[in-house]
Each structure stands twice: as structure tokens, then as C-alpha cells.
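User: Fold this; C-alpha cells only.

Assistant: Input:
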Amino acid sequence: MTSQPVPESLRSLLADTLDIPSAEVTPELSTQTLESWDSFTHLQVILALEGEYGVQFDPQRIPDLTSVAKLQAALAEKGVAL
């Protein structure tokens, strides 16, 4: 997966939701690299993205959206211009 820079709007939303500095929000950031990104926080991330960008993710796909790069790709698939 090619990693693109994280747009500021997405970086800010994820930093706020994950309670980390925005500089830490990189395409490589994932549930594997951030200990506080647990299942509850993952749900908060998904709900924040759906609310902010007016999209709805397939519930079966949500467990696979475990990194910033994957979230960006999923938003792009939904037609969200970041």
C-alpha cells in the first residue's frame, strides 16, 4: 500500500480522537503501533470519521481499517476528497 501524506483535516481529527500530538499521525500509525488504539478507541475513530465526512463504513470491513493508511484509502474509496 502506497502511503500518502496525511491531510491536515484528517491528521487533526485522528490526533484529537486518539489523544496524541498531530505530528504522530502518520500513514504507518496503526493499532499495532499505538497501544492506546484499542477496540473502544477504534470505534471512536470510525464514528468520528463517519460523522466528519458523512460516510458509512461496511460493518464487516471496520475491523480491517487498522491503520491511518487504510483509513485514508477507505475514505478515498467513498469519494471523500481529503
